[in-house]
Amino acid sequence: MSISVKDILKLDSLKKINLVGGENGLEKCIEWIYVAECFENPLEGIKWLQGGEIIFITGVGIKDNTSLLLDLIRGINEKNGAGLIVNIGPYIKSISDEAIKLADELEIPLFTLPWEVKLVEVSREISNAIVLSRIEENSLTHFLSNILFGDGELEGDAIQKAAYFGYNLSGECCICVIDIDGFERYLKFKHLDDEISISKIKITFRKIVQDILEKHALKVPIIDKDDAVIFFTRSEENCMTRVDKALKEIQEVIKKRMDGLSVSIGVGNSYKDLKMMKQSFNEAELAIDSAKCQGLDDTITRYKDIGIYGLIFSIKNRSTLENYFFDVLGPIINNDNKSKDSNLVEILDTYLNENCNITATAEKLFLHRNTLKYKIKKIEELLDCDLHNFNDCIKVKMALYINTVIK
After folding, report:
1. Stated pTM of the model
2. 238, 216 in Cβ contact below 8 A?
3. Which intervals hold domain Purine catabolism PurC-like (predicted)?
4. What distances in angstroms separate CA 152 from CA 161, 223, 242, 269, one per listed residue?
């Protein structure tokens, strides 16, 4: 619900505003407004910017000095300003082609506003929009957080409260979680540890999600959690068809626009009672975890499709899982630990994944068939099992699944 530069174009006082450059920066979020006027040094006014401001100038100190205007645009970019609005009139009569070109290069939205439009009216309306947006966003965040993370009962009719914020959550609903893959690893690789840079990435991430959901006519409530975006959606068929298309597009756009980042998406089961959204949220997170256990990124996983992982994740006692794993596979683990050249666990896993097909397994592991047969026989002797016996295979495969979860 944050106000973007694009959003202010809808305000009544800005009907006469004209975008002349920096169109690719229209998605930037506006934190506040700032009037940067200084007679002696026109650039002095922007040194106090904190980032996210939309800057107004009448040009009283710049006049038609193109060089100063270019320096101002560069300064706004360095301070992470959201955009520049120039009051066209007695001081600045028009915007030079050089300034427009620079705004395009730096993706700084550059607007002109007729002199008869009073800055005091414009600034008041933008300020009110920002404040109202923050109030509504805080209220909605509190409401959604109470549903997903609260310990107590929901107060009143949650569906009616959702409708108050403009969201239809009647009927069956579910939770979708969109999580940035390896975000901490990405920040270390990029040497990013300041809050402003990290916050900027998260804001861009959320804005992409919001815009694509809106593009697919999905008006859904959204909440942030760490490096993930969570949203509620109705589960009726037409809506979920649009959700599926939107999720795929979100993955594609993020990879293109966010310097190689990717996201994994989990979708929980559907429930009619909003009190069950906490359950759906947990399922969506487990769906992502199941993909991570298999070493997969950039995935869309539904909880209903994670199979045996759902059962394993439901066992909260880690010792129970570890004991089962070592009871079943302990002998070949010990064998692998004693010999650096031994990889019986990997061979067993591949063999079962290839449906106990010797030829396919040998090709995948680059082993001679006779060598593989010898190793399979050794595994069976160590585990005291028969890998042509269905029950033995199930027991061993379960232990291997548990191993991926434990790791």
Report:
1. 0.70
2. no
3. 7-130
4. 17, 19, 33, 22
- Of the pLDDT bands very low, low, confident and very high (cuts 50, 70, 90), residue 165 is confident
Q: Using the predicted structure, report yes or no on whether residue 39 has a pLDDT greater than 70.
A: no
Residue at token pair 């100190």:
61
Same structural domain, 194 and 230: yes
Per-position b or e across 189-224, b if 16+ CB within 10 A of its CB: eeeeeeeeeeebbbbbbbbbbbebbeebebebbbbe
- Do 197 and 291 touch, CB atoms closer than 8 A? no
Query: Six-digit token pair at 285?
Result: 């997170």
Domain with 95 in it: what CATH number?
3.40.1390.20
Encode pLDDT of 370-399 as tens digits. 999 999 999 999 999 999 999 999 999 999
* Sheet hosting strand 18-21, strand order edge to edge: 18-21, 110-114, 83-88, 53-57, 32-35
Determine the structural domain holding residue 167 and report its residue range.
Answer: 153-313
Tell me how many domains the chain contains.
Answer: 3
**pLDDT tens digits along 64-113:** 788 889 999 999 998 888 999 999 998 899 999 999 999 999 999 999 99
Give the tens place of pLDDT for each residue, 290-329. Answer: 999 888 999 999 999 998 998 898 888 889 999 999 999 9
115 lies in the same domain as 248:
no
Cα–Cα distance measured from residue 357 to residue 171, given in angstroms and rounded to the nearest whole number: 47
Indicate left, alpha or beta for 217 from its phi (over 0: left) and psi (-120 to 50: alpha).
left
Q: State how far the Cα of 200 lies from the Cα of 183, in Å rounded to an integer.
A: 13
Q: Rounded to an integer, what distance in angstroms lies between the CA atom of residue 147 and that of residue 153? A: 9
In contact, 99 and 21? CB cutoff 8 Å: yes
- Residue in 338, 352, 361, 340 with CA at minimum distance from that of residue 380: 352
Tell me the CATH number at 336.
Answer: 1.10.10.2840
C-alpha dist (Å) from residue 293 to 79, 309, 322, 339: 41, 9, 16, 26
Read off the pLDDT of each residue in 158-180 and give the average, rounded to a whole number: 88
- Examine the fold and report which residue of 313, 335, 353 is the final residue of a domain before the chain moves on: 313
Cβ-proximal residues to 32 (8 Å cutoff; 6+ apart), any chain: 52, 53, 54, 127, 130
Cβ proximity of 165 and 139 under 8 Å: yes
